[in-house]
Design brief:
- By secondary structure, the chain is mainly α.
- It contains 5 helices and no strands.
């Protein structure tokens, strides 16, 4: 049950972040500052900032006021938020698949290295004996 609650919390946070991203993009497209949008919508500036960062769940009334100030319908922004979530999930899936492939390749490399070391036998540790060198008469070897 706790795992499900955690998943729902993450899903809600992703949704809030997606709505915030879409709101921010729409605000920037309208060439408005957070303060300008807040004034037009009749709400506090910090509400805009918190909503854009996905740190606050705003009421439907506040959402409608923001959408009206931006000259967009609430449904348009929600559809864009859903599309953004789908794109992020697809990107996350691709990232997860790349991670699995990378992990498999790394596991094969480790197995191959282990098999190669087993074929050659155990490595001895310690100092390597000096090479046999012929020293010419009369030369000093330091």
């Amino acid at each position: 049950m706790k795992r499900l609650e955690s998943f729902l919390h993450l899903a809600r946070m992703n949704f809030l972040a997606a709505i915030g991203s879409v709101l921010r993009a729409a605000r920037l497209e309208a060439r408005l500052s957070q303060e300008g949008l807040a004034h037009k919508a009749g709400i506090y500036r910090n509400t805009i900032g918190l909503a854009e960062r996905g740190e606050m769940s705003i009421s439907l009334q506040t959402y409608a006021q923001i959408c009206e100030a931006l000259g967009l319908s609430a449904s348009q922004l929600l559809v864009k938020a859903e599309l953004l979530i789908e794109l992020e999930e697809a990107a996350g899936q691709a990232k997860a698949e790349r991670w699995v492939v990378t992990t498999r390749v790394a596991a094969r490399a480790v197995a191959a290295k282990k098999a190669a070391s087993e074929k050659t036998g155990p490595k001895t540790q310690g100092t390597v004996p000096p090479k046999n060198r012929k020293v010419k008469a009369g030369s000093s070897d330091r």
